[in-house]
Design brief:
The chain is mainly beta. The protein is built from two helices and 17 strands.
Length: 217
Amino acid sequence: MKSTFIPVPQDENLRLEASVTKTATFNGTTLNIDGGNFAPGGIGEPMAGVVNVSAIRQTITIAGTFHAGDVITTTVNGHAVAYTAISGDTDFAGVATSIAAAINADATAANMLAVPAAAVGAQINLTPKVALTVSTAVTGSSNTITATVGSETYTFKMQDSDDGSNWFDAGPSQAADHVGAFSVGGIVSRTNARLLLTIAGTAPSITYEAWLNPYCE
């Protein structure tokens, strides 16, 4: 069985991406591995794209109509954090700010985030430190308020090409769902390689670097 070898520091000859921030599907930068650079272990051998994610966004958006006493509950990996709207809440931005503050004040929820939750207008941005399953619920006798989870997803896949125009999948997809390092395996049998990033959801954003790395015994 082979395992991923991640040298420190990374080999700059095999860099696929400098630090980039993407909010939509991105084909990836082409790396020619047959001239000037080289395929780790040789073309046709297993290798990995190593992706280092430094920022990644999941969102909750507040909308509708709210009243004092409405309870908005955010559940993160089974842990519930509730915020009750007050008479001083006058707009969605204020409610979103208060929900973000409630999440940050809850030690269990805050520990799942790489940075504190932050409100931008009516949108609450979460930066997961671990994989998150997020859901919301609203209770109240006279409200139509909604708290909608953005369901942002980020998936990487190794691809290769002989001419830089026609690309082929060279391995399985790998989801990135939190800050940290991910290995995107594949077998590159052509002279150019890249990492395809597929993004979906309401307001996605991801910042990352990437390299090719060899496998070793």
